[in-house]
Structures are given as structure tokens and as C-alpha cells.
Amino acid sequence: MNGAMADEVVFRILLVVILVGAAAVRMVYAVSSKRSGGRLSVSENKVVMGVMGVVGLVGAYLLIGYLVFPGWVAWAALPLPSWLRWVGVAMGITTIPLLFWVHRTLGKYFSAALQVRDEHVLVTSGPYRWVRHPMYTVLLMLMVALLPISGNWAIGAVFVGVAAAFIPIRVGKEEAMMMEKFADDYRAYQRRTGRLLTLKFLSLIVVSCLVVFLVLWLLATFVLGFLPVDLRFF
Q1: Burial class (CB in 10 A: 0-12, 13-18, 19+), 21
Q2: 3-231 CATH, one of 1.20.120.1630, 3.90.1150.10, 3.40.50.2300, 1.10.1410.40
Q3: pLDDT bracket for residue 232 (50, 70, 90)
């Protein structure tokens, strides 16, 4: 196995680790949040969900192709420098603790579906002190990270495209539900927070990614005993 092929295997393994880690966080909290209680729910737009489902299948095909059958998606490969792909890895790894933080802050009020419990309270702690929808911010960050990690423009286009189209729709519906539930309290919360991003939350994300990148660099250099040439900045 030559150097390029070995590097690609490393990126595939890291991508699997990131996806499994993110999915595990969501699964654990989805299970723990299930309990009895009345709910005010809003159904999804069936046409939108149908389109998203089809695009999701295409994305799954591309991911499986990249991870298991590389020949399937070789036509969309991008010749990205190694340092940029490692930046993607740092972004992807950073999403896992961020997702954990968001889910832990929501606790029993987390739900993958659009719903508000009868006894729901307005969560304004943790990342919610700065932004109203930090989970979508982190998920979008994960989708963006798929592009440099995989070095495949089709994977990036599909997942970033889905997130860019889907998130505004979900955010709009969620805000309407929260407005109905909390009225003036939610309006006041809107005035002091950002929808998806603020300077403080962005700074936290950037610093976290830099720390993870530095840890990866130190691990590769002093523990594994190698340093990819493209990680040298001088």
C-alpha cells in the first residue's frame, strides 16, 4: 500500500469514528428523552421530507461508496492538501463534544421531531445562552467537515446542500412553536440571542477546532512518530 492509499485509509477510519460518535450522542439522548406526557406537535411537510429522504439516500450511497467501495465515487474526488483534510477532521471531532453539550443542556426536552411538551421550559443555559438553535449549527458544521475529510465534492455538495435547505425550514417551524408556547418570554429571548451563530459561539467553535487540531498534530508527531508533509506551515 503506497503512502497516498494509506493516508486515505486513515481518513476513512477517522470519518467512521466521527459519524459513529455523533450518532451515538444523538441516539443516547433520543432514548433517554422518551417519556410520557402531552405534546404539542407540528407535522413535517411531506413533500419536503420526501425530497430530503431521496437526497439522503443519495448521500448514503456516496458515503458507503467512499468508505467501502471507493471506485463508486472516484469521479468526484478532489485533490485537497493534507492539511485541509486534517482541518476537516478537527472540525468533525469537535462536533462530538459540542453535540454532547447541546444534548446534555436540553436533557429531557430533546426531540428529533418537531414537538413541544406540555411541561416544556425555555432552555437558556449552556450554548443556548448565545444562540437559539446551536444543535443545527453543530450539525451544519459536521456536514461541512465531510467535504475536506472525504476529499469528495459530491459528498460535500449533497450533505451541505441538504443542511442548507433543511435547516431554515426547521428553524422557522421551531421558532413558531416556541413563540406559541412561550410568547413574550420567547420574544425577549430572541432579542438577546442569535438564531444560529454569534461572535461568542463562533469564537468557541474556532478555538475548540484549533485545540483539537493541535492535539492531532502532537499525537501524530510524538506518539505515532510521523508528520504529514502538508502539515508543515514553514
Answers
A1: middle
A2: 1.20.120.1630
A3: very low
